[in-house]
Amino acid sequence: MARSAHAYVRGNTLQFYEWLKKHSAQTIPEGPPIWICGDCHVGNIGPLADSEGKIEIQIRDLDQTVVGNPAHDLVRLALSLATAARGSDLPGVTVVKMMEQMIDGYESALAAPRTKVKTNGDDLTPIQAILEQSRRRRWHHLAEERIEDVRPQIPLGRRFWTLDKKERAGIEALFEDETVRAKILNFKGREKDTKISVVDAAYWMKGCSSLGRLRYAVLLGIGKKTDRSYCLIDLKEATSAAAPQAKMTVHNNAQRVVTGACELSPNLGERMLAVKLAGKDLVMRELMPQDLKFDLDRLTQDEAVAAARYLAGVVGKAHGRQMDIKTRSYWLTKLRKQHSKSLDAPSWLWSSVVALIADHEAAYLEHCRQYASAH
Asked: Residue-wise over 211-228: b if at least 16 C-beta within 10 A, else e?
């Protein structure tokens, strides 16, 4: 997180919600309770493939998903976009334009969530480049990226650690479970009676969201040895969400993540399952080579403004699909009423972003001081 202010914002969900708890009641409107991402920053949106390999840009990380206030996703995304712009050394005027285009893109998608997010001829070069890369990717790209080789083995080292016997036995037993097997075989139209075997497994040390949690990479063989394909499974412990939440009927954190994914990102939700392992709730997810995230740290002004509009449209679509016409109309009216004369975006969104940037910049510099003194 010390690499840049944007990296710090992406990796520090807790501080965002601590600020929100102190200040949101005064300014941020209460939207209709729906499933929200809960950690809606730029890096958590990107191309996702469905079971047929069709690709759509959706929300790609739902660890923090809850039934909550959709305005919280807007503030989190706006903060992320603003820090990405600052990381690209763009002026504050660009951030103003980004906020205006962001809310316009969100409102347009919210009004018609079943239609494709409109680009309006905007400069979406960075987004289109990631999409093209996603469409070209195959299994060997995923293997080389995630496990550093196309051979059916997970290389132990800095990222992957050896399992003890109890962990290995637990993972072997998990993939003998009929519900788990059915989920894997249903995906991509695999034959029902196809043999599934654990080829290799390791503890996976991966990024800020993995710290302090169980996380495993499991390489599965699909079919007989003479005619075998492979898939890579991510098993990640689900912990409590930091995001404020409305009343929910889900039974545990893993089920919460899966349910939220199905509502917000169908391409991801269809390949996820809530499971139990070592007495903990984990989310099982099959990884696809087409799954990528956006890295928008080096943008021109036109690219930044276009990205803000487009990514907010993706979020608006995910929110709007969950609302009936009456609810969408109510939320749109509430948003549009709060546009100010000097800014074509809600005043609460702008004031929240300004305050959050100041709050996070100070915390980021302190984080860097602590990092430097420890290294």
From this structure: eeebbbbbbbbbeeeeee
pLDDT-derived band at 5 (thresholds 50, 70, 90) equals confident
Give alpha helix (H) positions in the chain: 5-11, 13-27, 70-87, 92-111, 125-136, 139-146, 165-174, 178-186, 253-264, 266-269, 301-320, 325-337, 347-374
The amino acid present at 243, given as its one-letter code, is A
The dihedrals phi and psi of 37, each to the nearest 5 degrees, come to: -65, -45
Mean pLDDT for 23-42 is: 88
Distance in angstroms (rounded) separating the CA atoms of residues 49 and 82? 28
C-alpha 286/C-alpha 186 separation (Å) is 12
In angstroms, the CA 34 to CA 179 distance is 28
- CB under 8 Å to 371, separation ≥6 — which residues? 2
Phi (first) and psi of residue 49, to 5 degrees: -95, 145
This prediction's pTM: 0.89
Does 324 score more than 60 pLDDT? yes
- In the block, tokens 């788990």 appear at 180
Residues with Cβ within 8 Å of residue 300, at least 6 apart in sequence:
88, 123
| DSSP helix, strand, coil percent of the chain (3-state; round to 5) | 50, 15, 35
Domain boundaries, the chain: 5-135+295-374, 138-286
Share the mean pLDDT of the chain: 88
